[in-house]
Structure formats: structure tokens, C-alpha cells
Design a protein that fits this description.
globular, 12 helices, TIM Barrel, Lyase, Ornithine Decarboxylase, Chain A, domain 1, nine-stranded mixed sheet, eight-stranded parallel β-barrel
Length: 420
């Protein structure tokens, strides 16, 4: 991407040298390009001019308030799945009337908080949740705007752990029962039916699953309107994939995705809600790490870096591919290496048999496309500190989450009352 380039043999994010950031902030750390995030958002909005729309950032992808505010400042809403995420986006100046509340296990207290804020829409996942929301809203004398998440039984053709639209998945209501459930919802107090919602999975690199699901949703909206429901919002979720592997040509394009949506739904005159997460922030982020040891095994050479699976879980959890590059570009020599972390797990591996620029102990490398589901899924496993996050804008950088100290981390524990 244009935001990442080599100048004088040094990797830059926008007009800031990564090595200069590393001189001020010890590795490992995440850094994000503000211009890349803004451009990714504008790629959606510029292609949706023919329909009323709201692009809501799926906060689970990257929940740092500075990232949320970058998007809020240029008009984005937010898709949240917990009260905590809702509190984050409100603090980052996302208007409540641009918040969509998803998730399959909303509690009464979370419902009360959301109703107090006056959010745009609850995306409901079950009849049980509908009954509970009606009761909570009635007790508060408030009206809840709702859509049901429809499970269309469409294969997203993605990783099994991030597929959400098949009948075997835990998400949504079966499309076969949708009209029946909407009919029941219309009888309940303090419920306002306004939309239909669908989200079939994450990291989709083909448009075909979207097309199959969205055609079913179009038909359902027509049917629901014929049943007397005032459906004026269609929430199409997120899931559009990004190009983690640079030679992979099957990735869906935002422009094709948006053109299909406009063509299919233009006749319904509904507000189209999209919930992109990964496709807004993944390619904006780098995980910067230092080679601690270069270890020659009998069969392989290992680069042991100071990042670990607790910092970036995707390779260990999903066998996910991330491009990995050297921060300095001063040699054309390459070698085949395994890139591994220090955690006591064989799964703490970022790449195997990968050809990279030749690196030595003390050299810096960048794990690419790490802006989504990196910091958001990190942990303190092995009592490792959560790593800093940095936002870059042109030739400026700012720490948007500082590294905690060991005293702060260990101080979160309390001894039992009977322990000395």
C-alpha cells in the first residue's frame, strides 16, 4: 500500500520511519496508519452514493479509542457486541444514533444501558432475546428499534471458526422461520420493527457467498413488507476479506461489493447498513518486532522474535498467513526461516519455511496487515505485558496505548483473605 514504503532503505509508514519509532518505543509494538484507515472507509462511502447508507465500524476488529475516533471524525458509526464496546465508542464520540448493537447474549443490564443511550438498532439473535428486550424496554417506558439477524444457511467459504451463516452455526434465526418470528415481534410492547440483518462470516475472499445470502434477504424483505412490516433498514453485516497474502488474486473488491449491493437493493429504498471491521483497519497496521536470537537447528533456522502468540493470535489460532518484511532494505540476500515467538507453545509460530530478507539478531521486522484482530485479541499469557499501540499521521506518531508495567499487571491480582 502507498502508506508503506522504503525511503533510504528504511521502511516508512506514511512519512515516518519505523526505525525512528522503535528508538523511542521498545519493541514489540503495533503501529497504524491513519491515512490508510481513512481511505479504506472512504472507499465504501464513495461507492454507495445511490443508496442511503450507514457504515458502522465493527469495533471487535480493533477497539482502541483513537482508531474508533479516526473513523467517527469522518462519519462512521459503530457495530458493537458488548456494553464495554458501546462505552468505548461513545467515549470516542460516535453518536448513539449511529450505533448498532449485535451479539448473541445481551444481558438485561446491557439492554438497559443501550436503551438509555438511544442507539440506532438492536440486532436480535433469538426469540428469547426478543422477549427479554421487550420486557426491559417496557419497564423503562422506552422503545427498542430492532432487526432480526437472519441465518440464511449460506456457506461463507471461509475458515470454519469464522463462518457464521450456516444452519449449524449458533448465530441468528433460521430464514425459514423469519416471517413467523417477525409476526410475533409485532405483537410485543415497546418493540419497533425496522430492519433485517445478516452476517455470514469473516474474511470472505469471494463475492459469491454474499450474493447468495443477499438475494435471499432481498426476497425476505419483500415478503415481510407484504406481511405488513415497515422494513426500512437492511443491515448486511461485514466480512469482506483483505489481501493477507499478496499474491492471492481471489480477494473481493470493495467497489464490486458495493456495486452489487446498490444494484440489488436500490429498488427497496431502504437504508443500507454495512459493518466492515477487518477491511477498514487490517492493512493499516504493522506489528514491529526485534530478532532476539537466530537459532540454527538441525533442519531449520529459527528467528526467535520478541513478539508472541499472545500479541498476535491469528497465526496460532487460524493458521493465518501474514506477510513479514524487514524494516531495513540494505541487502538482497534471502534465506528460508521459521519465525517464532518466546512463548512455551509450539503453536507460537508466525511463519514456517518462509523466504525472507536475511536478518540477524537485533534487526527489526514488520508483520503486515496486523491492524485487525491483533491487539484486540491479545492477552498477558506467560505474564507478558500487553504491547504499546502507536498511531501515525504523516510525519507524526503518538502512543495511543502505553505498555503497562509488571507492577501494574501483577498488582491486578489479590491474595485471598486468609493468605499473608
Amino acid at each position: 500500500m502507498a502508506a508503506f514504503h522504503y525511503t533510504n532503505s528504511q521502511l516508512h509508514m506514511e512519512n515516518t520511519a519505523i526505525a525512528d519509532i522503535a528508538k523511542n518505543i521498545h519493541t514489540p509494538f503495533y503501529c497504524y496508519s491513519q491515512s490508510t484507515i481513512e481511505t479504506a472507509y472512504q472507499n465504501y462511502t464513495s461507492q454507495l452514493k445511490q443508496v442511503e447508507h450507514l457504515v458502522c465500524f465493527a469495533v471487535k476488529a480493533n477497539s482502541n479509542q483513537a482508531i474508533i475516533k479516526v473513523l467517527a471524525d469522518i462519519g462512521a458509526g459503530a457495530d458493537v457486541v458488548s456494553e464495554g464496546e458501546m462505552r468505548r465508542v461513545l467515549k470516542a464520540d460516535v453518536p448513539a444514533n449511529k450505533i448498532v448493537y449485535s451479539g448473541i447474549a445481551k444481558t438485561k443490564s446491557e439492554m438497559r444501558f443501550a436503551l438509555d443511550q438511544g442507539i440506532f438498532q438492536f440486532n436480535l439473535e433469538s426469540e428469547n432475546e426478543l422477549e427479554r428486550l421487550s420486557a426491559v424496554a417496557s419497564s423503562m417506558d422506552k422503545t427498542a428499534n430492532i432487526a432480526f439477524r437472519i441465518n440464511p444457511d449460506v456457506d461463507a467459504e471461509t475458515h470454519a471458526k469464522i463462518s457464521t451463516g450456516k444452519s449449524e452455526n449458533k448465530f441468528g434465526i433460521p430464514i425459514s422461520r423469519a416471517r413467523e418470528i417477525y409476526k410475533h415481534a409485532a405483537t410485543l410492547p415497546n418493540i419497533r420493527i425496522q430492519g433485517v440483518d445478516v452476517h455470514i462470516g469473516s474474511q470472505l475472499t469471494s463475492l459469491n457467498p454474499f450474493k447468495n445470502a443477499f438475494k435471499l434477504i432481498h426476497e425476505l424483505v419483500v415478503d415481510l413488507r407484504s406481511d405488513g412490516h415497515d422494513i426500512n433498514v437492511i443491515d448486511l453485516g461485514g466480512g469482506l476479506g483483505v489481501n493477507y497474502q499478496k499474491d492471492e488474486m481471489a480477494n473481493a473488491r470493495v467497489i464490486d461489493y458495493c456495486q452489487f449491493i446498490q444494484t440489488l437493493f436500490e429498488d427497496l429504498n431502504c437504508k443500507i447498513v454495512l459493518e466492515p471491521g477487518r477491511s477498514l483497519v487490517a492493512e493499516a497496521g504493522l506489528l514491529i518486532s526485534e530478532v532476539v536470537y537466530k537459532k540454527k537447528g538441525e533442519e531449520r533456522t529459527f528467528l526467535i522474535i520478541d513478539s508472541a502468540m499472545n500479541d498476535l493470535l491469528r497465526p496460532s489460532m487460524y493458521d493465518a498467513y501474514h506477510d513479514i518484511i524487514s524494516v531495513k532494505q540494505d541487502s538482497e540476500d534471502t534465506e528460508i526461516v521459521d519465525i517464532v515467538g518466546p512463548v512455551c507453545e509450539t503453536g507460537d509460530t508466525f511463519a514456517q519455511n518462509r523466504e525472507l530478507a536475511k536478518l540477524e539478531e537485533g534487526d527489526l521486522l514488520a508483520i503486515c496487515s496486523a491492524g485487525a484482530y491483533g491487539a484486540a485479541m491479545s492477552s498477558t499469557y506467560n505474564t507478558r505485558l500487553l504491547i504499546p499501540e502507536v498511531l501515525v499521521k504523516d510525519d507524526q506518531f503518538s502512543v495511543i496505548k502505553a505498555r503497562r508495567s509488571y507492577d501494574e499487571l501483577i498488582g491486578m491480582d489479590n491474595l485471598a483473605a486468609w493468605q499473608d
